[in-house]
Each structure stands twice: as structure tokens, then as C-alpha cells.
Amino acid sequence: MKMTEGVHPVTAPKEVVNRIKAECEQLWAEVSKIHGEVVASKEPVSCSQEDALLKIYQVKEKRLRAEVELLKEKKVEALPTNQEVLHGILKAELQRSVSELTQTLSNVRAEKQILEEENQRLAERESQHDAIKEALERKLAEVEHEETHSTAEGYLKDLQQKNKKAVKYMNTVMLKMKEFVDEHFPPPTEEDIEKWTKKHGKSGQKSHGTNTRVKYLPLQTILEELMNSCMDTPHDPYVTLDETYWPPYVELLLRYDIVLKHPDDDMKIKLVPFHLGNT
Length: 279
Known about the structure:
This protein has helices at 13-41, 49-73, 83-148, 152-184, 190-199, 219-232, 247-255, and strands at residues 239-240, 259-261, 268-271. Helix content is 67%, strand content 3%. By secondary structure, it is mostly helical. The chain is rod-shaped, with a radius of gyration of 55 Å. The chain has a three-stranded antiparallel β-sheet.
């Protein structure tokens, strides 16, 4: 390929530029052709470092010469001396700059909104992942707990813990019940016994074979016996009544559905199993 070595002084600037452009386009076409051949063959083309640098320098030279010719051809416009015209030019330049900056600001704001929405979506996704992680951790803990308690030792420990809680709860209930019963249902006095025996046409109950009056059990003791029988022997929770049970207390417990009679024996009562739900 024949290349122009210099610029003739008589040649018009436009012709020089056109000629340089044509040569550049020709060089570009050759470079594209060589690149296509290299890609097609997939084999490296042998080229010395000096030849490659020479061609690069030649292309740079042509480009710089074209820029010089363009600068020579371009006329330098002097600013007008009229203040109004100068003011209008400067105003137009400022308006154009403001318009460009406004457009840039609008683009930046749009990009900012897009990034904020993306950030919000990522935050929501992260929150969902955290919730899923917590749910999985709870499920894993439950599975590990079940596996731990699947052995006989685990069941034994579980039963022991439940028994401790039940005993603690029962002691609390017994204490509160004792306070309530001592306040509202004190043991019957001699006067109470006399009134009850006269009302029911009885002369006062005596112990078998003695002349001493029967000592009735306090309501607190009766309730404790019923509760202990219900917890200790749930298969047979009945308590047998005898002469030490103050009849008004028994009637009171029966009337308010606190105890039940045995279906076959009226002398036996049991505590209603409230802890087992409906009977």
C-alpha cells in the first residue's frame, strides 16, 4: 500500500483532509481484513515488534496531521464588542449549560430512585431470608429436642421435670386454699354442732363405745385427703366417709360440684377431676 509522506503546500486544506480520511479508511479496511483472517485461522500472525511499532506511529502521524489541518482551516471568531450582543451570547451559553446540567440532574435523580427501589427490594429480601432462617433454626431446635427426648433417659427427665412442676403447682394451690378455707370455713365449734344436731333431730354424735363427742375434721383436711387420693391413686380416687366428716361440709362440696359420690356407694366421694377437663 502506497502512503502519503507529506502534505503539499499548494493542496487545498479540504482536499488534504479528504485524502487523509480516505487513506485512514483504507488502512482501517486492511486492519479489519487482517483481523478477520486472524480470527478465522485462530493462529497467531508472526509480526516483528519493529514493524508493529512502525505502523502504529504512521497511523498516529496521519491522525495528528489531520487534526493540524482542521485547526488551520477553522477560523477563530472574535467576541463582539457590543455589550448587549456579548451579554446575549453569554446568556445563551449559560442557559445551554444550565439545560445540560438540569438534564444531568434529572438523570442522576432517576438513577438514584432506581437504586433506592433496588435497595428496598434487597432489604425486603434480606428480611424474608432472616425470617426463614429463624424459622428453620426453631424447627431445627425442635427436631434436636425431640431427638434428645426420644431416648428412655430423655423421657425420664421430661417426666421428672413435669412432676416437679406439678408438685410446685400443687403446693401453691394448697397454700392458697388453706388461707381461703381458714378465713371463710373455720372448724365447727360446739355451738355449731349443737345447732346442727337440734335442727336435724339428733342428740349429738358420740364416738363408738365412749361418751365423748366426735372431733370433726376441718374442711382443709378433707380437701387435702381428696386431692391426695386423686393424685396418688387416680385409678381409685374415692375417699370413704366416716363419723369424723362434718356433714355440712360434705353437703357443701356436693352442692357446688366439687366432689362426686360413688355410683354404687353413698359413703364414698371423690374430687371432681378438674385437671382432666370435662367429666
